[in-house]
Design brief:
This protein is α+β, with helices and mostly antiparallel strands. It is about 35% helix and about 20% strand. It has two helices and two strands; from the N terminus they run H-E-E-H. Strands 1-2 form a two-stranded antiparallel ribbon.
Length: about 60
């Protein structure tokens, strides 16, 4: 059986790549440029980037959850 591989390019916005991962229910997304694999974006990478972008606005106090 052959599966189509969902990929992204290095210039894709993080939000777009993250939403693709969410919609497709995948934990990693190959990053392809000119037909060559140049990296892999994981769900953890997306969460870390979002956290960094919102660092000053997020209260990580466990009681807030």
């Amino acid at each position: 059986m052959t599966w189509s591989v969902v990929t992204t390019d290095p210039e894709a916005p993080l939000v777009q790549a993250g939403f693709t991962m969410f919609q497709r229910r995948i934990g990693s997304l190959p990053v392809v440029e000119n037909g060559r694999l140049v990296g892999i974006l994981t769900d953890r990478d997306v969460l870390a980037a979002l956290h960094k972008a919102q660092e000053t606005e997020i209260d990580l106090d466990a009681s807030a959850w």
